[in-house]
Amino acid sequence: MAKSPEEEHPHKALGWAARDSSGVLSPFPFSRRENGDDDVTIKILYCGVCHSDLHSCKNEWGVSSYPLVPGHEIVGVVTKVGKAVTKFKVDDKVGVGVMVSSCKKCDCCKQDLENYCPQMMLTYNSINHDGTKNYGGYSDMIVVDQHYVLRFPDNMPLDAGAPLLCAGITVYSPMMYYGMTEVGRHLGVAGLGGLGHVAVKIGKAMGLKVTVISTSPKKESEAINSLGADSFLVSTDPAKLKAAMGTMDYIIDTVSAVHPLLPLLSLLKLNGKLITVGLPEKPLELPIFPLVLGRRLVGGSDIGGIKETQEMLDFCAKHNITADIELIKMDQINTAMERLAKSDVRYRFVIDVGNSKL
Amino acid sequence: MHLDGQLGTLLVFSLPSLSPEDLHMIKNEWGVSTYPLVPGHEVVGVVTEVGSKVEKFKVGDKVGVGCMVGSCRSCDNCANNIENYCRNYILTYGAKYYDGTITYGGYSDVMVVDEHFVVRIPEKLPLDATAPLLCAGITVYSPLRFYGLDKPGMHVGVVGLGGLGHVAVKFAKAMGLKVTVISTSPNKKKESIEHLGVDSFLVSRDQDEMQAAMDTMDGIIDTVSAPHPLLPLIGLLKSNGKLVLVGAPEKPLELPVFPLLLGRKMVGGSNIGGMKETQEMLDFAAKHNITSEIELIPMDYVNTAMERLLKADVRYRFVIDIANTLKSSS
């Protein structure tokens, strides 16, 4: 008979888990594996609340396995290192993002693209080789192979840096891959939430002109005055859309609800690129004429490899980029999830795990 | 017929071919047609007169005209030899010319065209089998180059084995690529492998075949303009793979987002090519002995040919033998 979550591993841990597709989280005692030779044990101090956590808790993608402990924007301090660990030592400030394992042998892994490895293992809601489940960062500790642990730059605040581990790399990677780095080019950022606001900051740091494209007119003032966006486009205003047609070199689309692509495609110049990083539950409608007549493309991107995640953290540290966050205690998570579903947050909740009673 | 002594090249066209766009335009399926409409934008002929400023051609030259006969000549795209992306490019037929008249295409005995939009047909290429390259050829050649799907050893899929598809196969093989045709018609398999030199053939409705080929292609050129599912095609791509659409269905297609993200894949489009690249494509075709597979028809067969084209009943392009068959009706 399978052991209970509390008994299956040697080290007791406490977290909060969703038990069913209502998505409501509650205290969940479980256990973590023994710290192996390549592993690092981390006492978790902060964990960002990603929209994916909400999708997963409510089984909106149809792949959730309960009980489910979400959390993949994890920041903490090393408390133990295995014999073969060279990258970290006790007391180092570290982070863990969206993945905790991959095959390490395939072409993707060898090219530092572990995120595209067919055997990439997610930080939570995945099954280990030994058949036990992976539980995420809404918990007090985690044990991770050193390869998948990131060094936190010294000058980066731990709480506001946590969301970079998913939101940050999710926008940074496609910006690099699809060449959105030429100074003076024009980047559109669709959606101003956890991902979008970080994309604005990184875009500005790269020297791009940045326009936020949003359905919420009330976000304009802050987008311009606080985040430094150059302009703001309300995508439901046909006149404004028309005036901006054919002006953007690229667009990062962070919106994870189903939404029309035609208005976004029309904003792109010739050879323009619309890169989608949000994960809507249903397929989107893709009009073909704008692709053909303007040689435009729609591409996807999924987080980033470990090397690039470290590069992103170092880039953000250099440019003083962190997320704008609202710090909460663990027992406020359900209210936070309800607010997140309504996009009522500037712009990421971060759980103060270290100071919460779990 | 308009005659411009300054810039024009007066041509007798002998060989336009039938492209599906001609059919769409004749039937006003895109809602932009004005009648009377003389189609034809894969036109080949011989120069019979040149204007006083013409430098590139002389009387007797074998030349071709493709999908466009004018553009603004002053925007960045025109300056960068991508007149096909000029906002004001003028189509060979059914469009308003600089003087306000409507352009009439190659289903006719003579055309007058600005020399900038005329290409030289290389000596060694037969005129009739080369005509389709002027639209079909450049339409598939341009994206193979632009999207980098032209490196020897790459594996490229071609969806649809018609006028565009069979030429895409020939170009891709000449570039040293491994080529797989993806088609709904199993009866095209034998010919594509034995005659066109295709490396493999997938019947798109055969789920087992499609499944086995998942994650094997660097790119796909999709020539199908009828609505069709993109999900199975995206599945055929390796990580970072590119699906390029050159057919343009009128209605949007469903784009499944997860597979795009999880493999960092992309879906792009492409529309013919600029004049410089069209000439480059013809020179490449000459070097590699690439022409279209054609069925030569008389002008008065054209309506029957259109009906057959609608049913994809042609190997693989009709070409009208104008010079020998276009007779005055009076």
List keywords for this structure.
heterodimer; A: 358 residues; alpha/beta; Quinone Oxidoreductase, Chain A, domain 1; Rossmann fold; 2 domains; 7-stranded mixed β-sheet; 6-stranded parallel β-sheet; 11 helices; 27% strand; globular; B: 330 residues; 5-stranded antiparallel β-sheet; 12 helices; 16 strands; disordered N terminus
Write up this protein:
- The complex is a heterodimer of chains A (358) and B (330).
- With 358 residues, chain A is an alpha/beta fold.
- Chain A folds into two domains: 5-166 and 324-355, Quinone Oxidoreductase, Chain A, domain 1 (Alpha-Beta Complex); 168-300, NAD(P)-binding Rossmann-like Domain (Rossmann fold, 3-Layer(aba) Sandwich).
- Chain A has eleven helices and 18 strands.
- Chain A has helices at 51-57, 107-110, 158-161, 167-177, 194-205, 220-225, 238-243, 262-267, 289-294, 306-318, 333-341; strands at residues 11-18, 25-32, 39-49, 74-81, 93-96, 99-101, 121-122, 141-145, 149-151, 186-190, 209-214, 231-234, 248-253, 268-276, 284-286, 297-300, 325-328, 348-351.
- In chain A, the strands form four sheets. In chain A, strands 3, 4, 5, 8, 9, 17 and 18 form a seven-stranded mixed beta sheet that branches. A six-stranded parallel beta sheet of chain A has the order 12-11-10-13-14-16.
- The radius of gyration of chain A is 20 Å and the shape is globular.
- Chain B is α/β, with parallel strands linked by helices.
- In chain B, 27% of the residues lie in helices and 24% in strands.
- Chain B contains twelve helices and 16 strands.
- Chain B has helices spanning 20-26, 76-79, 127-130, 136-146, 163-174, 189-194, 207-212, 231-236, 257-262, 275-287, 302-310, 322-325, and strands spanning 8-16, 43-50, 62-65, 68-70, 90-91, 110-114, 119-120, 155-159, 178-183, 200-203, 217-222, 237-245, 253-255, 266-269, 294-297, 317-320.
- Chain B has a six-stranded parallel beta sheet with strand order 10-9-8-11-12-14. A five-stranded antiparallel beta sheet of chain B has the order 6-1-2-3-7.
- In chain B, helix 4 packs across helix 5 and helix 4 (136-146) crosses helix 10.
- Chain B starts with 7 loop residues before the first strand and ends in a 5-residue tail after the last helix.
- The A-B interface holds A 108, 113, 116, 177, 261-262, 270, 276-280, 283-302 and B 77, 82, 85, 146, 230-231, 239, 242, 245-250, 252-271.
- Strand 16 (297-300) of chain A pairs antiparallel with strand 14 of chain B, so a sheet runs across the interface.
